[in-house]
Specification:
The chain has 288 residues and is α/β, with parallel strands linked by helices. The chain folds into two domains: 159 residues, NAD(P)-binding Rossmann-like Domain (Rossmann fold); 109 residues. Helix content is 55%, strand content 12%. An eight-stranded mixed beta sheet has the order 3-2-1-4-5-6-7-8, with helices on both faces. Strand 2, helix 2 and strand 3 form a beta-alpha-beta unit. Helix 12 runs parallel beside helix 14 and helix 13 packs antiparallel against helix 14. The mean pLDDT is 93.
């Protein structure tokens, strides 16, 4: 089965590279940016650059639309699809509804979304093994193909209901995009204290690695760690004082994270309701 890609960004190039490495023939690619298409074919043996999305559809049986989300429906509608052709997008926040024009033409449509970050095209393919794809299709054959693709990539798969996809996408971002954002905020916070960016990264990276290791090995059996779980109100007060003086823009986020932490601390029975109320009263009402 010949594969084609409309869109040669990080997701498309990373996925195509990984699939090509598992003997899926990727034969055609199109992108509005010539350099992106050239980088794509440099990573995928046997693939040729096409001059239009239609040429990709004409040369491939299985077409991934890996453009930015805002253009998926427009691109799909611009192509004349064949009956029983496979048309797939890789957006985590959108459903197969974006591919309705292909479905009306008799094509089988679906979603094959990789649950990981694509920082760059070279690293993307390396990050796929062990990741999880959320898949969606009304066609059992296509679902089976998705499962086979995921397995060949040494990845997992889950089926997410169409109405729940936006929330699933947010859940994935909490462990990727927002972790990266928090890391950058941490580095900025340290730099506000005169610590260099290089020193900040060196200080924070082991924490990220240790946290990932704890999640992998102990997360179901251990509570969170920190002053909230210890019921250490004095430390939380000092945190609020310090942020107010040195990095105040992080204060609203810190307070909300403590509120969420309280909920988990109660679940794990490391603090009682009285201590929880004291902590919440502090973060909600404490004035500098």
């Amino acid at each position: 089965m010949k594969l084609g890609f409309i869109g040669a960004g990080k997701v498309g190039t990373g996925l195509a590279t990984a699939l090509s490495g598992k003997n899926y023939p990727v034969v055609a690619v199109y992108d509005t940016v010539k350099q992106s298409a050239e980088n794509f074919v440099a990573s995928v043996k046997g693939c040729k650059i096409m001059s239009t999305p239609q040429e990709v559809a004409d040369n491939a049986e299985f077409v991934f639309i890996t453009t930015p989300d805002a253009y998926i429906e427009q691109v799909c509608s611009s192509v004349k699809w064949r009956p029983k052709q496979y048309v797939v997008h890789c957006s985590g926040a959108n459903t197969v509804q974006l591919l309705e024009s292909a479905k009306k033409a008799g094509a089988y449509v679906g979603v094959f979304h990789p649950g990981l970050t694509f920082a760059d095209t070279k690293q993307a393919a390396k990050n796929i093994p062990g990741s999880t794809f959320d898949i969606e299709s009304e066609d059992e054959v296509l679902l089976n193909i998705f499962q086979e693709m995921a397995a060949s990539l040494d990845s997992n798969w889950i089926v997410v209901k169409a109405e729940e996809k936006p929330v699933y996408h947010v859940a994935v971002e909490f462990t990727s995009l927002f972790v990266m954002l928090l890391f950058r905020m941490s580095a900025d916070m340290m730099q506000a204290m005169g610590i260099t960016e290089e020193e900040a990264v060196k200080a924070a990276l082991p924490m990220i690695r240790g946290t990932a290791n704890n999640i992998e090995n102990n997360w179901t059996s251990q509570p969170l760690t920190g002053p909230t779980d210890r019921g250490d109100i004095d430390t939380i007060r000092k945190h609020i004082d310090g942020l107010t003086k040195i990095y105040p823009k992080a204060l609203p986020l810190y307070r909300e994270l403590v509120r969420q932490n309280v909920d988990y601390a109660i679940r794990h029975k490391v603090i009682d309701s009285k201590k929880a109320d004291e902590i919440l009263s502090l973060v909600n009402n404490y004035k500098i």
